[in-house]
Design goal:
three-stranded mixed sheet
């Protein structure tokens, strides 16, 4: 009983901690003006042009930390504050999203694999828990196994996402430093922003893996009783 309490505490608190960490870190460094004086939009445009990505557009998006890169439309979308303000946090996030655009241009292997897994992950994530719940409550190990296999596809997608995000952050740091967008102490601050953002992906993946392992143990126990 205690082990279950600890387990559920971990899978509930870890994502919450990650979200709090990224919000607090972003809030702190979004108030630190970058010495370059460049807005997030200008940072994104500068890095894109330096890498020959003239066709990629930079647009403003609504929502808090809604920043993303869309490979289908070749658009880097930045949330309003990051788009308009000149801060260390905004620069880091803008550069990170451009990092994905550079990955796309270079056909970065993990990004290519991630794109191929998107339709599979979308289907499996929606259907997996239906089979899992029916399998558990109806004591049907076959349906539970099917649900586990579908869930595993989603877990693979999340695992593949990790190197994509870490690589984009590494590219972001390299670009910002080489182009003089951030200097000296700003490098350490930018790394903190990017590390906090990466933590959300790590937490999500850890929770997904733990849930998958728990279901595998349930299936193993159920199979022994069949």
């Amino acid at each position: 009983m205690i082990s279950y309490i600890i387990y559920f505490a971990i899978i509930l608190l870890l994502p919450i901690y990650a979200q709090m960490k990224v919000k607090s870190t972003y809030k702190k460094y979004s108030k630190v003006r970058s010495t370059s004086g460049m807005t997030g939009a200008q940072v994104a445009r500068t890095i894109l042009d330096a890498n020959g990505l003239y066709e990629v557009k930079v647009v403003e998006s609504s929502g808090f930390l809604s920043d993303h890169y869309n490979p289908m439309t070749k658009i880097v979308a930045l949330s309003s504050h990051n788009y308009h303000e000149a801060s260390v946090a905004g620069s880091a996030i803008a550069a990170h999203e451009v990092g994905h655009a550079i990955q796309h241009k270079e056909a970065y292997s993990f990004l290519t694999l991630r794109h191929k897994l998107v339709p599979i992950a979308n289907i499996s994530s929606n259907a997996s828990w239906i089979f899992v719940m029916i399998g558990i409550f109806a004591s049907m190990s076959g349906l539970l196994l099917l649900g586990i296999l579908l869930l595993a596809a989603g877990v693979v997608f999340q695992i593949v996402t990790l190197p994509v995000e870490f690589n984009a952050s590494n590219r972001a740091m390299d670009q910002m430093v080489s182009l003089g967008i951030i200097r000296n102490e700003e490098e350490r601050h930018a790394k903190k922003v990017l590390s906090a953002a990466a933590l959300t992906y790590v937490a999500a993946t850890a929770v997904a893996v733990l849930e998958l392992l728990r279901l595998v143990l349930i299936y193993t126990g159920m199979s022994r009783n069949d």
